[in-house]
Amino acid sequence: MKRESKVWGERWLIRQDSTHAVSFLKLNEGYECSWHKHQSKYNLFVVLSGRIGIMTEQFDGKRLVGLLPGNCFTTKPGEYHKFVAFEDSEIIEEMYVEYCESDIERSNTGGKSAEMLPKIGGA
């Protein structure tokens, strides 16, 4: 896991590939990240402990959403946003490209497995 110190706390990069990145963030009370946007990434924030706010800017103005442990919030590509820690907090952040349910291509239909179960189950 790669660890980075940030002005607002610490970031541990858990996993990253060409379509997403998952990080664990420790946020220091009273600090915020920069006002920014992503060209093609969604940003999902899941609060594990503490209390944070996410500010976004949309066509109708800015809004602030308060989040507590168990809450989550997603920003869209092109949407300016920033987070602020109202107290020391821990969050999971996932950045990902748009999910498209129709991108699946099936080569057969699923059903009861006649091939794999005996091999895996030891029979």
How do the strands and helices of this protein lay out in sequence?
Blueprint (H helix, E strand, L loop, with lengths): L1 E5 L2 E8 L3 E8 L14 E8 L2 E7 L2 E7 L4 E4 L4 E6 L3 E8 L19 H6 L2
Antiparallel strand pairs: 1-2, 2-3, 3-9, 4-7, 4-9, 5-6, 5-8
Can you give a write-up of this model?
- The chain is mainly β.
- The chain is built from one helix and nine strands.
- The protein has a six-stranded antiparallel sheet with strand order 1-2-3-9-4-7, with no helix packed on it. Strands 6-5-8 form a three-stranded antiparallel sheet, with no helix packed on it.
- β2 and β3 (20-27) form a beta hairpin.
- The N and C termini lie far apart (39 Å).
- The model has no long low-confidence stretch (mean pLDDT 88).
Brief overview:
With 123 residues, the chain is mainly beta. The protein has one helix at residues 116-121, and strands spanning 2-6, 9-16, 20-27, 42-49, 52-58, 61-67, 72-75, 80-85, 89-96.
